[in-house]
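Re: the 271-residue chain
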Amino acid sequence: MPTWITNMKEQRSQVCDQSYENADLTILSKMQARAYHIVESHFTDLSQVKDPPALIINGGAGTGKSYLINAIRTLTRDKCAITATTGKTAFNINGISIHSLLKLRVGTKVSKDLTGQSLIRLQEMLSGIDYIIIDEYSMLGQMNFGWIDKRCKQAPGFIDKLLGNKSINFCGDLGQLHPVGDKPLYHAIPTNSIGEESHFAYQMFNRVVKLSTKEYRDMTLCKLVLESCSYSLGKVNSTTSTLRTCKNIKMRLGYSLVMKKLAIITMNNFE
C-alpha cells in the first residue's frame, strides 16, 4: 500500500507531462477574456525585462473559473503549473496541490528550508515553470503563502526577487472557506517574519478580475444558440441534436428573454 501511494503521488506531481484541451476563446465572457489577455500579453512579450503578472481571479461556483484555467493552461503549456490548496480541488482541475508542488507541510506543521535531494527535486519540478495558478486561494493562509514565496525564491536562487520572479495567480472566492490554523492573506497583523513577507507579497497583487455567473452562462449558451441557428442554413444534415439543444436552452434561460426567443425561433424552424 505505501508503494502504491508513493507511485500515485509521483504520477499526480507531474505538472508538465499532461494533455491540453483546446479552449474556445470565443465563448469567454468579458471578464474572462480580460484575465486571459493579462496573462497572454505577458506570455507573448519577448522583452528581457518584464514584471510577471500577479493576478487575482475572483468568482464563485458557475462563473467559468475552470474553463478560464484550462484556457490559460492551453496558452502557456508546460510553463504553467495548475495547483490548488486541496487535493480534491486540484484533481477537479487536472492539477496538483500546491503542497505537493512546493514540498510544503500540510496543516499546522511548520515547513523548513529544503536542502540536498529535496532541493534538487524542487528545482527540477519548477524548471521552466513561469506561471503558477492556485485555485481555492481563500484557504491559503499567511504562513503557507510566506513559504510559497520562499520556495519560489529558493529554487531558482532569486532571493531578492518577489516570488522568485514567477507569476503567481490566485483563483477562487475569498468569501469561502478560510485557512485552518493560519491567518487569512489580508490580515493586517502578521504572526511572525514569514507572515510579514507573505503580507508584503500579497499587497503586490494589483490586478483583480471578478467573474460573473450570469455573464458566463449568457456567453456559453449564446454560442450554442448561434451554432444551432447555423444548422438551419443547411450546414449539417441531422437536426436531432440541434432540436434537443434548443429545448434545453429554452428551459434553462428563463432570465434572458432575448436568448430565450432565439432558442424558440431556432427550435420552431425544425418542428
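Residues 224 and 245 are 8 Å apart (CA to CA).
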